[in-house]
Every structure is written in C-alpha cells, then in structure tokens.
Amino acid sequence: MKQDVYTKAIQLALRVGRNDNEISQKIVDLNQFCGDEPLVFNLKVKTKSHAFFMLDVTLCDDNKWRLIEANGSNAALSSTAHLGDEKRAQHLVDVFNTKDNSEKCAVIFTHQFRFIHLGEFFCRAAKFTDYLSQDKDAILRSCDEKIGNEQVTVVAGEIKEVAAHITCNGHQLLYKGITVRLISNPNLLPELKRMGVAHELLETIGKEIVHEQSCVALIHDKSLQQTMCLGTGIAPLKCVEAKSREECVDILSKARVMEQVLVGKMNAGSGGTGIEFFTPQMSDENINETLDQLENAVIRKYGPESVHTMFPIRFFEFAKAKGLNIEGKKHLWDLRMMVIVRPGEVDVSPCVVRACPKPFDGSYSKGRVINNLSGRVDPDNLAKYMLQNPFLKCSNFSDGLVIPESKLNELVISIVKWSENAVNFYCK
Q1: Cα–Cα distance measured from residue 289 to residue 282, given in angstroms and rounded to the nearest whole number
Q2: DSSP code at position 60
Q3: Which of 66, 95, 278, 341 could form a disulfide with 51 if both were Cys (CB 3.0 to 4.6 A apart)?
C-alpha cells in the first residue's frame, strides 16, 4: 500500500527534529499569523516567463517604502499568505511542466541547517508531490532513501546532506545518477560551488532548473535588486560592493568620514548569517574586528571553503523603519510579500510582519536591527515578534503602527513593477 505523502512529510520533519537536538521540540503554529481574507492581488504585466520572489520591505521614517532584500524559494513563511503554500507549490508544478519530463528525474527541496519552520517546509514538498501525482508517478523521499521505480523522485532535506549526492555531467546536475529537473532553493547552488561541483556552469544551469528560473542570479545579487527598484515607487538603497578584505576596509573608512551607517552582507547567505553593522563611531580596530566576526560566522555555518564564495560583500545604507510600538517601545520591522510571476501576470500576496526582538535604541546591536528570528527567539515568544500583515482589516500589526490603505496599495503596485523589471531584465 502506497504511503500517504502528507504522512511521509510529517515523518521526515520529525526525524530532522529528533536528529538535531538544537531544534526546538515545539512546532510553531503559523496559522496564528494568517487571516481569513483572500488577499491576493493579481495584475496583468508584460512578462514572458515564470519567476518566484519573497520580498522583505519596510516603510521608513521618510514615508518611503524600501526593499530590504529579495529572496526566492529559499524563503519561509509563504504559508502565512492566503493559500500561500498551495499557490507556491502549484506554481512550481507549472514550472516543472514547462520542462522536458519524458525521462526519469528528481525535484529537490532543501532547507538550511537548524531550520525552525520544518512543518511548513515538508508540507510544501508534500503538496508539490501531491499535485504532481495527478499526472506523474511521483514519490517524496529523504536523501538517505534509495530511488525507486517512480518517474519523479521528490527529495526533501537539509542542504549539505542533499548536496552530497549531487554530481555534474556536462551541463546537467545529477542526483544519485538521475537528472535534476527542478530545485526549490537557490542556496543549493553556492553550496555546490563550495563543494567544487559544476563551479563554472552553475549560473547557466540554475537559470533552467531553479524555481526562480532566469532570475535566479538576482536572488544572490542584493545590489542589483536595488537597481530593479528604479521607477517603481520603492526607494532604492545605496550600495557598494567589495571583492576583497582590503576593499571592505576602504569602503568602511570612507563611510566613517561621511558619518554613514552601513550594513555589510555576505554573498549568497541566508538566515541572517554573514550580516554585520558598521557605524561612524567604529575605529579601524573595531572595523577589522567586525569583519572578522562576519567571516567567522560564515565559516561556522558554511565551512572553510566559504571564504571564497562570501565575496563580493555588499554594503548598504541602513534603512530605518518607522517604529512599531510593542509594549510601549519602538521596534524595527519588515513585511514579507510573496510574488508569483507567470507569463503575462503577477500575483502579490502579503505574508507576515517580523519585528526585531529588541527595541531600537541607536546601538545597532543584532537583536535591535535584525528581524530574522531563526535561532534568536524561543518559539514560545514568536507570536510577540511576528505579526499579521497590515493588509488585514483586524491585523494586530495595526495596534502598533497604522499604515494608510493608500500606502499599502502603493506598495502592491510598486512590487508588481519591481517584478516586471526583474523578469524583463533577464529576458531581454
């Protein structure tokens, strides 16, 4: 008797939690951040391909929207949007169906190490497998299972564990000897690069087999993401790139003279790793110590080979959000928006607000300026710093900050323009 795919997903999630004793034993109920309103904004655009984005935006003190960064299928929390994971999984099926799927193949889902949203991740892999099974013989498996006789093997697991089974044959990636047809998480590519797999071909291969399709390079190019803001209504953040430690020091020394606060981000990082803040008060010694902290954090998470893939390090101007009142104190925050692009149309769905766990006091310590909560907040306290999106009529976000409806509508239009810019940039 064939095992139910959703039962299999639960088993895989529980196994990860059991094997990693630093993952909380509590399951985070993301339903508490959802509303019942069908908030999906669909607009017609001039695009010719598929793409997928998760944009983190904030409204700053000058009343302008700014893009903190764009993620792709590496990002969590799509289940907090109305039918978000269902739409995300179906979109991935739609992308899969644009490929030549006549041969036996694999679809890869990967998550980062010590990921806290395991329930969402494995259920999304199960949804994809379920939807695909309407037309194909598809089975969800872990990376330590043997491949069976199924037409499509859907593999779900931690990035390093899955990457260990991937090789390259010409212009194709192979998982345990079968063709990788689709990948849901662009961060698998830099992991393969660190391992020396298809080093020179990954960008070309990624355009064909990652959920973001032609826009896959944009997910890791945080500087180009800001260029895509031009003409959209989202104010672009100033950015400069450093390709070496020496260039980092030079950039930061000049910023100190200009009394600028800069945010340094490693290339192709995730989960808040490889991010540091540099203030005008820092001495040369402080700057070098903080760069050491950035590099050491990258090595701890990604291994010694990551010192070659962490560059270019990109330095952004600091975007200070309007204060969100939580228990009488002002916190910085961002709003995650899911964007699904198809030929000729874009769907925009509000997801969830994430607030920094500590109020902003001008010190730029991590808890006051980074709102990626993975590993930083006990799941019991997540509801305090994750809030419903402000598009909902009765959102608890509005208890701490009211954003006019006209400003929210402006954001939707701006995101659609940004997405159109991004897709058309790569499909010239």
Answers
A1: 10
A2: B
A3: 341
pLDDT tens profile 326-344:
999 999 999 999 999 999 9
DSSP 214-279: GGHHHHH-HHHHHHTTTTTTSPPPPEEEESSHHHHHHHHHHHHHTT--EEEE-TT--TTTTEEEE-
Give the span between the Cα atoms of 81 and 201, in whole angstroms: 35
How crowded is residue 87: how many other Cβ atoms within 10 Å of its Cβ? 18
CA 325 to chain centre: 26
The whole-number average pLDDT for the span 259-274 is 92
Measured over all CA atoms, what is the biggest interatomic distance in the chain, rounded to whole angstroms? Answer: 70
Q: How confident is the model at residue 20 (pLDDT cuts 50, 70, 90)?
A: low
Q: What is the pLDDT of residue 396?
A: 92
Average pLDDT, the chain: 92
Q: Strand pairing partners for 240?
A: 315
Over residues 21-65, the pLDDT tens digits come to 444 444 566 777 777 777 899 999 999 999 999 999 999 999 999
Q: Tell me what the mean pLDDT of segment 406-410 comes to.
A: 97
Query: Considering only 149-158, 379-388, 404-413, which range has the smallest mean pLDDT?
Result: 379-388
Boundaries of every domain in the chain: 5-32+79-211, 238-317
Residue 226: phi, psi to the nearest 5? -70, -35
Question: Residue 301 half-sphere exposure, CB side, CA atoms within 13 Å?
Answer: 26
Name the residue with higher pLDDT: 11 or 186: 186
Looking at domain 238-317, its CATH class is alpha beta
In the CATH scheme, what is the code of domain 5-32+79-211?
3.40.50.1760
Q: For 398, which DSSP code? A: G
Nearest CA-CA partner of 234 in 225, 222, 243 = 225
User: Percent helix, strand and coil across the chain, each rounded to 5?
Assistant: 35, 25, 40
What's the CA gap between 208 and 204, in Å, rounded? 7
Given a contact cutoff of 8 angstroms between Cβ atoms, the answer to whether 71 and 53 are in contact is: yes
318: Cβ contacts below 8 Å, ≥ 6 apart: 261, 262, 263, 277, 364, 369
DSSP β-ladder status, 345-355 and 275-278: unpaired
Distance (Å) of CA 262 to CA 255, 280, 315, 340, 398:
7, 9, 6, 31, 29
Name 330's bridge partners: 325
Q: Using alpha carbons only, how large is the chain's radius of gyration in Å?
A: 21
Length, in residues, of the chain: 428
